[in-house]
Amino acid sequence: MYDIIVRLAEKSDINAIAELFDRLCDRLESATNYPGWKKGVYPDRRTAELYVGNEELHVITIEGRIAGTIVLSHDPEEAYREVKWRYEWQYEKLFVIRTFTVDPEFWGKGLGERLLDYAYLYGMRNGIKALRLDVLQTNLPAIRLYEKSGFEYAGTVDLGLNIPGLKWFRLYEKII
């Protein structure tokens, strides 16, 4: 049995997080790139620095090695306002999930589910009312995971990224 811990990332984790992002993007770009991520663009070292600095990036570690990330932010994309959510809470009472990753070496081991469970429990302990997220509409593995984890579809929007292939995103919500 592995020693698995989910915790808030620290500045000393940034190099390892950036390396995870690079490995993940290399793997995605060599196969089916479901999220449409690109090495050196997103997610990258700047992503890690920003969210660690904001105390929003959490990591899952196996035997001390960073094996995945999840950002829990109060800052939605502008397009989130185009959807009729189940409840209209202020974003201070919500977490938006971003930069949800698992190192390719650990795919299929349940770490994604563990990170989503952690987000739910962390939200509950911090008075959060719901978790929200967006996912590229063609990212079927992620959509299956979110729906299996209790997230409900809220609508499809254009996030305004102006990047070919990254136009339509499905929005999901899980009430806490």
Features:
176 residues, alpha+beta, 7-stranded mixed β-sheet, 4 helices, 7 strands, 29% strand, globular
Task: Give an overview of the whole structure.
- The protein is built from 4 helices and 7 strands; from the N terminus they run βααβββαβαββ.
- It is an alpha+beta fold and 176 residues long.
- β4, α3 and β5 form a beta-alpha-beta unit.
- The chain is globular, with a radius of gyration of 15 Å.
- The model has no long low-confidence stretch (mean pLDDT 96).
Describe the secondary-structure layout:
Blueprint: E1 4-8, H1 14-29, H2 45-53, E2 57-62, E3 65-73, E4 94-102, H3 111-125, E5 130-136, H4 140-148, E6 152-158, E7 168-175
Parallel strand pairs: 4-5
Antiparallel strand pairs: 1-2, 2-3, 3-4, 5-7, 6-7
Helix pairs in contact: 1-2
